[in-house]
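Letters spell out the chain; backbone shape is given numerically. Both lines appear below:
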Amino acid sequence: MRIRLSRLVLAALVLASPATAQQASAGKDGFITLGTMGGPVPSPDRSQPANALVHAGKVCLVDAGDGTVQQLAKAGILLPRVSAVFLSHLHVDHTGGLSAVLGLRNQTNVREPLTVYGPAGTRELVAGMVASMQPAARAGYGIPGKPWIPPADTVTVIELADGEQIMVDGMTVTAAQNTHYDFAAGSVEDRNYKSLSFRFDMPGRSIVYTGDTGPSASVEKLANGADLLVSEMIDMAGTMANVARNSPNMPPAAKRDLEQHLSTHHLTPDAVGQLAAAAGVKALVITHFAAGTPDPERTKGYVAQIAKSYSGPVTLANDLDRF
């Protein structure tokens, strides 16, 4: 067992290296983890959650947290190449960079409309961003009679429901409602607030992105047989240590409630391994590190916990890794 785990840890570190053959250049098909931080607390080491799916010369953003535009530049991707955005849910750590994507495309006169896909509420979110762009668009560069394109003409919103399947840029995209929220099925809250996972089926390759979720039979079904599973993960001990530092006087009952929330609405390393094994995915990438950048010993612990259930290759992603 000790030899097996050592090999898995070594494989994870090799897979995470920028020089690996698995990684795709910005011009080739691939999945780029632009930002791998998790949660609303900023990190000096990781950008907020965002990814770029490059396929057939087009780029789809998969979540767009704060810093997305700069991370695209670091990845060598020009902003006009972005043709679509998929939002897993509407928490600001996953959407905070979308306003810059929309505004800077408008400011640089990108005329091809951008399509934003997401759960219920996405239309309202984007409408607010478009409204915030109006003063700058009317002023333009300060040349009389030369404003920018009306912002509303540069973006289209399509809200997706559980189980919906669409074609985008030659890919089949399937959405599945996950368990990041646990509103009662059929309730008003459940109708209005959803968190989605996505499957991207391309010729010769399938990629599943969990977004934020807890254990979920629907996500397991969505990921069945996928070539790559990109999964969120929470370090419960690390996250609770951060909470203790930030809120040392938190009442015990509140702490218990928080622990229940985190373990229910997110995936522990054990749960990630169980998901990957049950779905039979060929490779696993971990992102959304809510506790920040861990020390190497803690990182080895993640891989060991995942390996209890899943025997395939595991990569702990860094910002700008490409798969």
DSSP finds eleven helices and 14 strands in the chain. The domain at 2-322 is CATH 3.60.15.10 (Metallo-beta-lactamase; Chain A). Residues 251 and 257 are 10 Å apart (CA to CA). The first strand starts at residue 30 and ends at 35.
